[in-house]
Amino acid sequence: MDELTGAIIVSYMMVLFNKMKCGSPERDHGICFVNPTLILPSTRKGKSKNIDDASRGLADRLSKRKGNDIIFMPYNPGRHWVLGVLDMKSDNCYYLDSLSSSNFNMQLKQIVDSAMVMYATQSGSNKRVKLNWVNVTCPVQPGATECGYYMLRFMKEIVEEGIEVLVKDNIGDGKVEYTTDDIDEIREEWSEFVTSFIYR
């Protein structure tokens, strides 16, 4: 299984966006997406510059979210995809890592925490936001390259089930790892979308 690129991640987010907007109204759970390139680390910049730029970009994205309170933040700090899901109503940030790491990616945490401070300042709020970071129990990838597929599957389940699937800590419906059919479903949806996009 090949690693997924940022372009594939973004195009699958378009699949999910279309599902929400063109599907049944109960599917639109107030979700918006952050393009991973907005917060990806750059090898050309120092670490603090990366965090500042990414935080500023994320704060700008938050200010344009148009009432959407669930923010998907796919993040790849280097050869591994993880997912941050920011719930603006509860001030929770859910962290999903298919390697089942018990630690948060500290660079992502710094980016999001700083972005929330910037966002509060930009929006004129005096509210001091202290995010509660929640490490979500989720299916664990069996190999070294499935992280992108797992992250996309996490997003799909949240789109279909709503934020409750995170609140109840039930991503994967109790599965230890996703089945081949679970991953193939992601591939099929993506390939159908890309094919329809090419042959319009």
Automatic annotation (TrEMBL):
Ubiquitin-like protease family profile domain segment(s): 1-158
Keyword Nucleotide-binding: no
Name of the molecule in the record: Ubiquitin-like protease family profile domain-containing protein
Family, as annotated: Belongs to the peptidase C48 family.
Cross-referenced PROSITE patterns: ULP_PROTEASE (PS50600)
Keyword Hydrolase found: yes
One biological process term in Gene Ontology: proteolysis
UniProt keywords, alphabetically: Hydrolase, Protease
GO MF entries: cysteine-type peptidase activity
Source organism of the structure: Lactuca virosa
Domain of life: Eukaryota
Pfam family, one: Peptidase_C48
PANTHER family the UniProt entry points to: OS10G0338966 PROTEIN-RELATED, TRANSPOSASE, PTTA_EN_SPM, PLANT
